[in-house]
Amino acid sequence: MWVGVAFFGALGAVARFRLDSAVSAWLPSDFPLGTLVVNLTGSFALGMLVGASVTHRVMFLLGTGFTGGYTTFSTWMVESERLGEVGDVVWLLRNLWLSMLVGVGIAGAGFYVGQAIT
To answer: Which of 106, 99, 105, 67 has its CA nearest to residue 80?
Structure first.
């Protein structure tokens, strides 16, 4: 199981890097939009897994492994701190609140989608 978590975690980290890079290249901005997209899609995916009532083994591999490697709390915090450091308080607050409020909402949406597909 631990090898599986490491494997799926590595896949999640690569997926995060690729999506963040693609979003940042497509929509260049001082706002960390790539990290926001990654964390919101990860919240949706985890919500779906919970809503689908997947087995403990699947949750461990995909929930802990893949989405754990895919989403990134630390990058979100560092990017938020940098926005504050340069004095961009409005973008700092938007980054914090968008991630938290929309993240909870989209995880809930994923939960209901997961329930609907089982």
So the answer is: 99
Q: What is the pLDDT of residues 84-116, one digit of tens each?
A: 999 999 999 999 999 999 999 999 999 999 999
How far the first Cα of the chain sits from its last, in Å, is: 24
What 114-117 contacts at long range (C-beta under 8 Å, 24+ apart), as own/partner pairs, is 114/47, 114/48, 114/49, 114/50, 114/51, 114/52, 114/53, 115/51, 115/52, 115/53, 116/51, 117/48, 117/52
Residue whose pair of structure tokens reads 């989403």 in the numeric block = 71
For residues 60 and 1, the answer to whether their CB atoms sit within 8 Å is yes
Low-confidence ranges of the chain (pLDDT < 70): none
Cα pseudo-dihedral 65, 69, 73, 75, rounded to 10: 170
